Amino acid sequence: MKAKKQCIISIDQSRQSAYSFSQNIGLSLKSLSNIQKNDGYFISYIKHKDLIIAPIDISLAGYTPTSPEEIEGVITQKAYEELALDQNFEYKINYIKQEDSTTIYDTFIANTQAIYENYKEILQNIKYIDCITAAPLLMQVLYKNNILRKDGVDCFIYLQEDDAFLVVYKYGEYLQSKSLSRYSLGAINTRLCELSGNKLSYEDFAKQLRINGLNLEDAGYLSQILDDAFYYVSDIISSIQNFSNLSVNNIYISSDLGNIDGLDKFVQDRILIKTQAFDFNINLKNKELDHSYLHTFMTLYAMNCIKGDLQSINFSNFLRPPAFYKRNGGIFLSIVCASLVASLAYPCYQFLYGYCVNIQASYEQEKINDRKSEIQVLQTKLDRINLDIQATKQNIYLNDKNLNLKKNLLSQIYNKKVNYPMKGVAIYDIAGYTKDMDIKIRELSIKDRNISLSVNSSSDKQITQFMQDLERSKIYKIRTKEIFLLSNPNLGYESNITVEIKQ
Fold first, then answer.
1. DSSP per-residue codes, 300-338
2. Are 311 and 98 in contact (CB under 8 A)?
3. End-to-end CA, the chain
4. Cβ proximity of 205 and 192 under 8 Å
5. Beta bridge partners of 476
6. By Cβ atoms counted within 10 A, which residue in 143, 258, 294, 447 is the most buried?
7. CB 58 within 8 A of CB 67
8. What pLDDT was estimated at residue 329?
9. How does DSSP assign 220-235, residue by residue?
10. What pLDDT score does 357 carry?
11. Tens digits of per-residue pLDDT, 419-461?
């Protein structure tokens, strides 16, 4: 069926929402309970937090694989080795070659059981999902459909209730993505409640963001949280720019709630890169219904997949069965018919064919046994590496602990050897200045490098002379507010003096 005639149904599993697109009606909201398996082409996506995304260099395998099967095998093996995948789980591994490299592949990995658990209820109605892609890859439709130019480096930031991510595209091609899940909308709401002391459900928080943007009742606390979030985002962007020797030209930001009023300006003021909300000129009828843009992106992604214009990443294990002649049953029936015809004309052919099949089966079984042995060897090596890692971590912990003890001991020795004697010498020196004067020190206290004195004299000139002598020594810095006459004139004058020991 041609793309222009086929209905496309986009599904957001986490929000339990679906949209249907057809050329006549455009984009329309669809109830998941009313969707049937023959309604059209089904597409969905996996959130960034449910993916393991990392580059893998196949040249480090010790040889250069050439065939697609060899490349897939090397990437799968290195994914388990380098990314510490749990051997007890099955993973769906997809990859795309980096634009500027012949041996490095951006690898996207998802837990197969987790995919099934997320979609099992939806599958009760529709049975099949034609494509489940990765959330960071949805933005490439903006370049495939000439909505954005391919002449720069763009960064997309997307916030969801329980997830958030950043993805960078270089000249229209995926470059890198990072998880921002600790700054999801739900996490921001939780932190806002902690700071303000007010309990606010996520639904009410989301409603306020839709209506008021960043101008909430607790806008000060929200600004504090967003400052932390986009300081972290700024660090990520800087590291990507430094590593790739590129400069990000534009930032586009949005959320599951749609565009949040004031957020783009807030980000631009903090990161100092031109920032815009998601406001793309996409030629789809009724696209305004999808405030999040994700269903719009999925619809365009599906169109490109159907046309064959896109190298799609597909995590779906719920694909439609192939045409009958491509199924195992159809293939078997074709073989039986061919065998029957061949048996009538060449009676000996069946015997020779069966003999060859048995030899091939034995050969394949030997290959399987060899692979099992290789897997056991690799597992043993992996276990040994894990033990070495644990031992190294323990050694690091003990060395750090010992180093901290030595630091504390040296600090205590320094304080006793340097600070205490220095203060004692200063007190002795100050007392020497009063020896030939009519001055009495009534009170004395020390804090850090400051000595506080309360002095008494029958003459205010004596006190003034005392302070001038100390100042001229260039060792001390003198501060006092006043020299005052006591209530009983017979007791003379008094002043509170602060003496700072210079460095």
1. HHHHHHHHT-S------S-PPPPPGGGSHHHHHHHHHHH
2. no
3. 84
4. yes
5. 501
6. 294
7. no
8. 63
9. HHHHHHHHHHHHHHHH
10. 87
11. 555 777 888 888 888 888 888 888 999 888 889 999 999 888 9
